[in-house]
Amino acid sequence: MNNVVPNHLLKKHQKNILNEKKYNSENLQTLKSSIKKLLKDKNGVLISHYYVDHEIQKLTEETNGCVSDSLQMAKFGQETEADLLVVSGVKFMGETSKILNPEKTVLMPTLEATCSLDLGCPAEEFKKFCDQFPDREVVVYANTSAEVKAMADWVVTSSIALDVVEHLDSQGKKIIWAPDKHLGKYIETKTQADMIMWDASCVVHDEFKFQGLKKMKKLHPEAGILVHPESPMEVIELADAVGSTSQIINASKKLDFKKFIVATDKGIFYQLKKESPEKEFFEAPTAGEGAQCRSCSQCPWMGLNSLENLEKTLIEMKNTINVPEKITLEAQKSLNRMTSF
Ligand code: SF4
Questions:
Q1: Residues 175, 139: contact at Cβ < 8 Å?
Q2: Res. 220: pLDDT tops 60
Q3: What would the mean pLDDT of 259-266 be, rounded to a whole number?
Q4: CATH of domain 7-114+301-316
């Protein structure tokens, strides 16, 4: 994490990890009531990712918002009648909501929350890369900037990436894939499609390690292993199920294991335990060094979302997401393909 995550953020993240968590029941209720009232007054709805603080996830459920993966978050924004979308997650999720719903106001609890995949694929460099291969279909992961999406033929999330590439391959199309190299490798292995890869990775999933996971499996031989495909290939190969966050939750319900080792951001544990309270879930080991948190299974940017900054955003109507019209119109084409695939 140290190479990509700015130092000030890393310190904040380490402090959060060490002081987990932070609400007493009185201030929790006050914050939640205030946010509920603000949402009602402003005809707003919460749209939250599985990786954010479980109290935000709970409040989103209590207010009939959407807690989901990035594909369902995008679809929900289009379906809801609310005028105001409050997106808890990272920046590309807010941008996607705005591009698909330009007439709605989109706010985020913090504008500081980004993603190493988005940061690792700057639009200008990506354009130069694509220009070298004009005959290829450009398929980008949702974890990219609005500018990169505007250059793409397709935007995909991890829940449909495999199917979209299979579909393109069956039409004889060659592919440029960006930005996650591990997800790209996984798809290439599964489909045998002709893919040229951009080289970036997720700071969380890149840290799941083959040897550590094997050791853990020895400790819990009866446990199933669930892995997000942003993880390295040798980790994926140990999995009983590989998939997006939604697919991991579904697998944990369907598979006949009583225990699971889970290789994705630990924010997902709230939903896993809620869906299967009788089952036991363990975090897959990372290269982390305990309390020093050289790495851990928690995204430092997702962790910036809190009930406090969510309330403040709603009171001040700040942290508005805006995307230039030209980019919106271009990115809508590839995003609409994603939501209607
Ligand atoms: S967990 Fe990884 S892919 Fe998801 S937002 Fe964080 S850095 Fe990006």
A1: yes
A2: yes
A3: 96
A4: 3.40.50.10800
